[in-house]
Amino acid sequence: RSLDRLWAGLAAELARQESPFRTLARAKRQRWAAEADQVRHMANYAQRWLGRTAVPWTLPDVRGQMVSSETVRRHACVELLWRTDDRRSIAELARLQAARDELGGSEIPVICLNLDQDTSVARRSIAQLPAGPTHILAGPIAAVEQPINLPILRVLDGDGKIVRMWIGWQPSWVEAFVEARRRGQ
Prior knowledge:
Elements: H1 2-16, H2 20-49, E1 58-60, E2 66-68, H3 69-72, E3 77-82, H4 87-102, E4 110-114, H5 119-127, E5 134-137, H6 142-145, E6 152-156, E7 162-167, H7 173-184
C-alpha cells in the first residue's frame, strides 16, 4: 500500500512537471515557423522583383573604373549579389568558377555585385578570386535592393528585366546560363 501511495505521488509529481519532449517539440516548432517565415520573405522578395527592371547604377569596378548597368546589361546577363561576410556568397563564387570551367567559358556576361559597405574589404576579397566575371563595388545599391538572403543569383533579359531568380540557396548556374542564352537570342 505504501508503495502504491508512493507510486501515485510520483505519478502526480511527474504529471505536474513539463516533459522534456514537449520542450523539444516546442523548440522545433518555433524553428520550423522561423524557417517557413524566412522562405515566405524570400518568395515575397522574388515576387516583388521578378518582371521588373533591375536597379540601374553607375558604380566602380575593382580597378576604380566607373561602369554603368546600361553598358553591361545590353544583352541578357547573369548577376550575382553577394557580400564578403556571407559564407554562402563566397561558396557561390567558387561554384560560379566551376560552372564556367564546366561550360568551357560562357559567353554570357556575369556581373558580381558586391554589397559590402567597406570597399577596402571588398577589394581585398575580390583580389583573391579568379579572373572572369565583372566585379562591381555595389554597396550603395544595397539599401535599394534590400536583399533578404544572400547570395542572390538572377538572370536579366536584354532590357534589364529580372526574369529568373534564386535567393539564398545553391542555384543551378547551368540553368541560369541556359536561360540567359535563351533570352539573348
